[in-house]
Amino acid sequence: MARTHISGFPRIGAQRELKFAQESFWRGESDDAYLKGIAKELRIRHWELQRAAKLDFVAVGDFAYYDQMLNLSALLGSLPERFGFDPAKLSLTQYYELARGNKAQPAMEMTKWFDTNYHYLVPELGPDTTFNGGVDWFFDEIDEALALHLPVKPVLIGPITYLWLSKSPVPGFDRLSLLPKLVIRYMRILDQLKQRGIEWLQLDEPALCLDLNEEWLEAFKAAYDVLGVSGRKVLLGTYFDTAADHAPMVSQLPVHGVHIDLIRAPQQLQVWRTALPADKVLSAGVIDGRNIWRADLGEIAGSLDALHAERGEHLWIAPSCSLIHVPVTLACETKLGAELKSWLAFATEKLDEVSTIALALRDPVAAEPALAAADAALDARRASGAVMNVLVQRRVASITDAMASRKSPFTARSSVQRHSLKLPLLPTTTIGSFPQTPAIRQARAAYKRGKMRALDYLERMRAETASVIRKQEELGLDVLVHGEVERNDMVEFFADKLWGFAFTENGWVQNYGSQCVKPPIIYGDVYRPEPMMVDAACHAQSLTERLVKGVLTGPVTMLEWSFVRDDQPRSTTALQLALVIRDEVIDLEKAGIRIIQIDEPAFREGLPLRQEDWPAYLEWATRAFRIAAGGVSDATQIHTHMCYSEFNDILPAIADLDADVITIETSRSSMELLDGFVEFAYPNGIGPGVYDTHSPRVPSADAMQQLLERACDVVPAERLWVNPDCGLKTRGWPETEAALSNMVQAAKTLRQKLAESIR
User: Fold this and answer.
1) Of the chain's two ends, which shows fewer C-beta atoms within 10 Å, N or C?
2) What GO terms describe the biological role, i.e. biological process, of this protein (predicted)?
3) What is the pTM of this model?
């Protein structure tokens, strides 16, 4: 009989219990005993959901107080040496300092987990790194589950993926040189699992879905030849793309099974079916772990019939990847329309989908009611008149190449903009958002609950905007923003004003740490019935003589940070969104807004894992941005913002966006990311972030000046902007004002220094 399992479950809780417990701990309002208690309650609750769904295994080790890569570093004992922490005695306070920084050290670098919107903490490894062991939290959680008599299957990130995703502060250091020591530590982990009677361990190696060179591929054999003699059964997990080209190599490793993603790469099944010996488990990831649409259970079960006949209990059924990328449960959704809700499956519902497929393979008659319900929902979705809009489809079909180009090249535009905008050298600005204070959140919540009138709410938000404008003027910023006081989220705010989107009450997904997002659902063709933020931008501009930058979310980020319909190509939906943003940009220009920022932090995130698939994505993603930005005059300056991703390998595409100014995250890597832009000779304006907004740490003016001086060494000062890494929504006002004051001072000091050098 086919067996069932998952790779991970959302850790935050259906009501974001972990988030609130974390933030209470950070504020000093509760102790670590309270936080650990909430965490234990969540783990047990999620394990019981898996047991209730009759899964054959319960995933353990997928919980993290902040991030699973940070957890693994804490387990291995490979913490950054610069913090001076004892790995074996790591406290929760120290754990969070690694993620958020402290007065002495900046936080560990953070970047995107493959092509998702989840951020992980990048391990810092060097010649002196040891893997002598750290905290025992992983084993404590296994013991918790065993005490509940649960069928435990621990899940860990595999050694090769861990090394691949790490970085070294030592130039030229070969991370693979650490593999022998790392494998010894994994063997010790396997020994402790053996002592607890654990049969199976899942080691996730999504790096197998990347373009790896021979040295890294050979490392798999070196590592797993050793791990294979541990006496424990290892399921090697792959996901997010195909690993079929490595099937012959992986099939010869002494592992006992392989998990493959048949949502992202269904074409790989036949390769693995042929390559993997019959006595090894083939775990089929047939339920989408990254989207929320109900699965066609009958079709999936039918497609697995022959494979089940061949493999029996050596066929496992699972989601494509960890369910951390989807919300916890539909049970908390009371306001979604009944029709739309019937089309959806969140993490808890996906557990039942996995079990239903296994039941259909074992006993089709018993599974018939669940299969019939899924069929009815799918039929209703296909027939719904809410999905298609003929006018939108006609407009997409009428897009021309001319719509994807500015009127003049950058050199001509920049001359016009210098003359009209009259900005100083090294102009200072922010990315867009300012602190979302409790008062702002309370007012928004009251308005949503109907306890505040629309006019009263508008006046309250305008008063908050006026306060933000005054603070920016007092700080001496050159280009202001309206502060996004009315925005709950950079995607949801705009999506709420568009047709074709739906919204959940509690569809939260962890973005990083305690930061959660509630992705909107694109269920139909997208249309803008009226301007979205023109009034707010114009009001802010009326409050000051300085330039106010209008800030929009770009089409690719709107796409990537939503749950996107799966019944048409993503590129088509991106074009619909591009037309929406284009209309807003043109309206902002008509209203007198002279600098417009189109944020695209998810541009790199959408890039496929395999390079052979890059050109197709980059072509439509770049075109979508250019269509969004292409309708304005040369005098209007278009900015874009990107953060927490590696951009160096797609710099030609970023240059093809043809934004007048790009702002990027560079502070955590000490301007390392800027090197790629310099080597590529990026031609347009650039604002490398000079301080990390995801940490409460306030760097000094001298520290920021040093970063700016490094930037000036490689980029002409007349093309440089000065700004933070990202938005300031999650920060408090005292640290925000202190950091921005230092930033402005750093820019002024460097301006004077540059002016004196010219004399």
Assistant:
1) C
2) methionine biosynthetic process; methylation
3) 0.92
